[in-house]
Every structure is written in C-alpha cells, then in structure tokens.
Amino acid sequence: MLRGRLWRHPDFLKLWAGETVSEFGSQVTLLAVPTVAILVLHAGPFQVGILSALEFLAFPTLGLVAGVYADRIKRRPIMIACDIGRLLALGSIPIAFTLNALTLGQLYVVALLTGIFNVFFDVSYQSYLPALVERTNLIEGNTKLEVTRSGSQIAGPAVAGFLIQLIGGARAVAVDAISFLASALALAVIRKPEPNPNPGTASGRSGFFAEMREGIEVVFKNPYLWRIAGCTATTNLGSNMVFGAVFLIFAYRDLHLSAAVVGIVFGISSGGWLVGAFLASWAARSLGLGLTLALAILLGGLITLATPLALLGAPVVVLAVLGFLNNLTVPIYNINQVSLRQAITPDRVQGRMNATMRTIVWGTIPFGAFVGGILGTAIGVVQTIVVGSLISVFAALWLLLGPVVALKEQPAPVGA
C-alpha cells in the first residue's frame, strides 16, 4: 500500500481520489436512507427489506446488458454518466424532505434508480482498471482502492450517525449526492486514452445476444470463475438476509441504540476493512490463494452468527468487535478474487465477464433482503440473523469442494 508503481501513475491517482470521495459519501447514505425509512416513515422489516432489494434489483435484471455495453462503448463515459445520474436521484431526497413531501414510495424509486446506475458503473469500473494500469499492477491497484474504501467506511458511518442526529437523515443524503459530482469530475480529467472497444466474439460472430452469450460462457466454462460466483452469491444471500433487512431493526428496536451510536459501531466495525485490505496479499502468500478465499468466507459467516450475543449485554462492544472481525474478512476475499478474475480474463471480454459475475453474485442480494424481510416479520429478527448466518457459513463449500482451494498463488495474467 505504502509502496508501488501506482504512486507515480497520475491517472490512477485521479481515479483513486474520485472513488475515495464517492465511497465516503456513500457511507452516509448507507445508514441515512434506511434510518429515514425506519425512524421517520416508520417502516417495518418487510418494507426495509423491499428498500434494500430494490437497490440491487438491477444486477440480476440488467447486469448482462451492462456487460455488453461495457465492452461495446468506452467505459469511462459510462461511469461519468452514472455518477451524474446518482447525483440527481439522491439529491431528490433532501429536496422532497424540505418540501414535506418525502414518502416511502420515493425512497423505493430512488433505490431502484441508483441501483440501475450502480450496475452500469460497477461493471464498467472493474473492467476499466485493467485498461488503465498494467496487469501486473492489478493487485496493487485493487489493494489501494480497497484500503481507501475501508478508510471511508471507518469514518463515514460515525460521521453519518452524527449528521443524522444533527440535520436529519434526509438532509444527510445530500453529502452522498455531492460526492458523486466529485467522482465525475475526477474521471473527467483522466488523460490516458482508453483503448477502442473491440465488440464481437472470439468466433467472429457479432450481435448483442452473441456477445452476451460469450460473456456467460467465459464464466461458466472456467472452473475457478463459476465456483467463485457460486460462493459469493451464496454468502451475499445469507448476509443480506441479515444486514439488508433486519440488522438495523435489531440495533434500533431490540437493543435500543440511537443513530449516533449505530454510526459509531459501524465506524469501529469498518476498521476491519482497513486491516483486511493490508493483510490481503500477505494472507494469500502465507496460506495460499485458494485456502485464503475459503477461510475468509467461512469465518465471516461464523462471526455473523454470533450477532445475537449482543442481547446478553454490552451491545455496543459486542457489535463493534464482531463487525470489525467480520469486515476484516471481506477485503481479504474481495481483493484476491477480483484480482484473480481480472488476471485470467482477456480485456476484450472483461466487461461481460464482470457483468456475468455481478449478475450472479449481486443477483442474490435483493432476494436475500426480500426473504430476510419476510422472515424477520414471520419468525423474528434474531431467528432471521441465525438462518442468514448459516447460509453464509455453507457458502465456503463452493471453494472447499473444488479446484479453487488448491490454488497456491495468483496465476500469470493473460494477454489483452
């Protein structure tokens, strides 16, 4: 992190700076929007689950479409357009609140729109990095991006909690809206020319559906990619039954914590992201790449399973410690698996590979939040936390029972 070639790469530094500001603002929205739904608009578990589901609905429905366009059109203009779209969508929340016109319906629409912009941005973003930096620098680039994302997750939630207490959740969302403007400006001043897209398929066939099919085949014909997709999709299903639907209700209503205290808990917990980002490459070198990926998923599920212990006493300490440990596992997994995916995939199909992966792994997020909301209402919040956590634990079997666990190190990058 403190060393590396990318410190002397001005265009990467611009991308890095813009993404850091955007990630910081997003931490405010992450807490502010559901807090407004729960405390201002009196939403229950089912309604919070719907809100979370709508934010990620675009991934299973539009992910493959985004992948084709990310390989047909230059990716940086797509990212700038998505930043502006998110600025306008989120900016409508504080305006409506000021006019005393904010409703759950508007929150649902904003969640859906930002989700659409997110899917096009994220697919383009992960596909853009290999075109911006040398492939031998991908782990360094992903590590730096993850470290600063982690830093924003440390300070962001605490600031979000105090902002919500000070000016209200709806007005706090304006911070995130402005951060997307900063991200768009940073992307706009990158000077390195982006390679011209090379649409079509390896077989020479062209056409939207032929190109989409090739992206799907890249994932499902690779023994590493489809197992990583299955593992990530399963853990996302379980974790979003917990964090996408019932966790905040558990914190606010079962533990009687305030928004400011929850923000502090999130901030302390997010310190784990920073530590995990620094440990990611070390863990892969020490334990082996495949075993590192499997252990990160297994430990993350087991740690989430311990969440109800907060009911026994010292809830702030329990949630902060568990959150820190859980978040430590996430960048260890993400940095290594994303770098693996980028390295073994030719640039020509990066967009479609990432779109297929995102469709699978994020497609379970809205379903998990929706199911979590239903279960939270039907069987209880704590019981839903247990069920979701167990699903996350069993996600590790995708890696433990296949060739991924045998990987000792990152394979050599393929050509463009």
Q: Write down the domain tally.
A: 1
Helix content: over 70%
Overall shape: it is: globular
- The CATH topology name reads Growth Hormone, Chain: A
Helix and strand content put the structural class at mainly alpha
Main sheet makeup = none
CATH architecture descriptor name: Up-down Bundle
Mean pLDDT: 85
The CATH superfamily label reads: MFS general substrate transporter like domains
CATH class: Mainly Alpha
Low confidence ranges: none
Enumerate how many helices there are, as a single number: 16
Tell me the fraction of residues in β-strands, as a range: under 5%
Cα Rg:
20 Å
* Through-space gap between termini: 26 Å
Number of strands: 0
Order of helices and strands: HHHHHHHHHHHHHHHH
Structure description:
This protein is an all-alpha fold and 416 residues long. Helices cover 77% and strands 0% of the residues. The protein has one domain (6-190, 208-406): Up-down Bundle (Growth Hormone, Chain: A). The protein has 16 helices and no strands. α2 (45-56) runs antiparallel to α14 (350-378), α4 runs antiparallel to α5 and α11 (259-287) crosses α13. It starts with 9 loop residues before the first helix and ends in a 16-residue tail after the last helix.
Quick structural overview:
This protein has 416 residues and is mainly alpha-helical. 77% of the residues lie in helices and 0% in strands.
Helix-strand blueprint:
Layout: H1 10-40, H2 45-56, H3 58-72, H4 75-98, H5 104-132, H6 138-167, H7 169-188, H8 208-220, H9 225-242, H10 247-254, H11 259-287, H12 289-305, H13 315-343, H14 350-378, H15 381-394, H16 397-400
